[in-house]
């Protein structure tokens, strides 16, 4: 027991000595920002502030080869009233030959007229790197199913062009 206590005390002395030797930071020192993709949706309780009932909607895509490309396309749903993304239902990959991975699942106070995605062309198992830009798609609804005809989607600016 005495050895454990002695070891802990020695560790504290070493840490204090190291901290005392460290150069003082000036007000101009900046902490590097680490950016990560977040799949967490909005925390606003739209049902409470609108008085409208939230319902779950699922997306069905009609692919377009110009958007999908030869490797595929990764889409991330961007929350926006009247809907927000549900958990793992915001990342979708579509590839050539109508291959898919993921699904679009949204909670909405009513069916949206259009939805927006961050997009980038990438293979199915590509990492979650930064998207290319904004993709705005009109939506038609069939009950709780949202139909996104991708040949009607419009590519917006690349993210680097936004200020």
- Average residue-wise pLDDT: 79
Structural class comes to alpha+beta
Could you give the count of β-strands?
11
State the major sheet: 6 strands, antiparallel
* Rg estimate, integer Å: 24 Å
**Strand order in the sheet with the most strands:** 5-4-2-7-8-11
Beta-strand percent range: 25-35%
**Helicity range:** 10-25%
Following the backbone from N to C, one meets helices and strands in this order, namely HHEHEEEEEEEEEE
**3D shape:** globular
Low-confidence stretches: 1-22
The end-to-end distance, rounded to whole angstroms, is: 61 Å
Number of helices: 3
Describe the structure.
By secondary structure, this protein is an alpha+beta fold. The chain has three helices and eleven strands; from the N terminus they run H-H-E-H-E-E-E-E-E-E-E-E-E-E. The strands form two sheets. The chain has a six-stranded antiparallel β-sheet, with no helix packed on it. Strands 3-6-1-10-9 form a five-stranded mixed β-sheet, with no helix packed on it. A hairpin with a 5-residue loop joins strand 4 (91-94) and strand 5 (100-101). The protein is globular.
